[in-house]
Amino acid sequence: MNSLARKIREGDARALARAATGIENRDPRALETLRELEEFAGHARIVGITGPPGAGKSTLVDALATALRSQGKTVAILAIDPTSRITGGAILGDRIRMQQHHADPGIFIRSMATRGSVGGLARATADLVRLMDCAGKDFVIIETVGVGQDEVEVAGLAQVTVVVLVPGMGDDIQALKAGIMEIADVFAINKSDQPGAGRVERELEAMLSLAQGHHPAIVQTVATEGKGIVELLQAIGARDAAIGTPDAASARDLVSQPRGQPERQPHHDAPVSIDHLGIAVKSLDQAAAFYESIGLAVEHRETVAAEKVQVAMLPAGDSRIELLEPSEADSPIAKFLEKRGPGLHHVALRVPDLSAAVERLRASGARLLNEPRRGAGGHLYVFVHPASAGGVLLELIQESAS
């Protein structure tokens, strides 16, 4: 172990800060230090705090840190801020609201500039989460930039994601539900001393009553006064316990394994295999022509009305390429193309027993996006949210069965 890694394990805050700066700058020496510390990963509880601008996320994080310190827990706060066009640094890097903690060795605060990244996080956030975990922090709290409905990457890092809302949002809750509303493990209605808090909670409950699977807890808080913070920590702890947290044996995979990902299951007689890769394209004909030029051939084409998509299947060895063209402007594939452009949309795994797989996923707390139903070619399928599948949309399928 090099000297910097050793100092970090000894609790040297300056060494930790130097390593964090090096990692943000992609310094090879800092990255090597992180690799040397990997064996110590797996201790921290990783909590994401996200929500629209003005929800009071910084104040809430400050209150959570205070409550955790009163319990004797050590805390690292990674606060993601917009990037200054002048300095390239974090605009809100001083974190004035958190200055009360500056002399507390049990709290490490790091402001990170987005540096052009979208999704509410900085490019090096995942590595810094791992660094704080390896440094022995009990909790790592990630506070995102004020996000919109499609910026949900924090769910891929955090074991528990808290979405912060405030009274007076009106119809914004409905507008947001397609994005950050879907990643919440816990909802915190902050500034709940203001009129309208009860209405926000009722709207959330009405929305959640229509959803399948896990229903997030709803907690009212007034972060400036410390109200509801204990209850919020209890809700975070309850969700953390429900999904389980890796022990030392799987420590190396803690950061890359998002909250809600199922534990490894024992092997079954029938193996799980890659069925196909789903690729979103603007034109089936143009995309198919390219793949045919490299030796593949379209085996099957159809329109799946339920997903508003046209599909072309091209066998590739034991797997397939699935080309997906939207058939309507409001289809999921059309929205994907609008936001991300053509590219890999999902990975599909063939499983021997979809019902059994779904039961295991639900028991582990993984987020399913639909009930099992018929898809292209007549197979049964279910989609698993990227936050539960390592950052990629996952489709589990079972061929047609009686």
Q: Estimate the strand proportion.
A: 15-25%
User: How big is the Rg?
Assistant: 22 Å
**CATH homologous superfamily descriptor of the largest domain:** P-loop containing nucleotide triphosphate hydrolases
The H/E string reads HHHEHEEHEEHEHEHEHEEEHEHEEE
Class per helix and strand makeup: alpha/beta
> How many beta strands in the DSSP annotation?
15
Main β sheet profile: 8 strands, mixed
- Arithmetic mean pLDDT: 80
Shape: globular
Helix content: 25-40%
Notes on the structure:
With 402 residues, the chain is of the alpha/beta class. It has two domains: 41-253, Rossmann fold (3-Layer(aba) Sandwich); 273-398, 2,3-Dihydroxybiphenyl 1,2-Dioxygenase, domain 1 (Roll). Helices cover 29% and strands 22% of the residues. It is built from eleven helices and 15 strands. It has helices at 3-9, 13-24, 28-37, 57-70, 125-134, 172-176, 197-208, 229-243, 284-293, 332-340, 354-364, and strands at residues 45-50, 75-81, 107-113, 139-143, 160-165, 186-189, 217-220, 273-280, 300-304, 309-316, 319-326, 343-350, 373-374, 380-384, 394-398. The strands form two sheets. Strands 9-10-11-8-12-15-14-13 form an eight-stranded mixed β-sheet. Strands 3-2-4-1-5-6-7 form a seven-stranded parallel β-sheet, with helices on both faces. Helix 6 (172-176) links the parallel strand 5 (160-165) and strand 6 (186-189). Helix 2 packs across helix 3. The longest helix is centred in the middle third of the chain and has 15 residues, at 229-243. Residues 83-91, 115-120, 245-249 and 251-269 have low confidence and may be disordered.
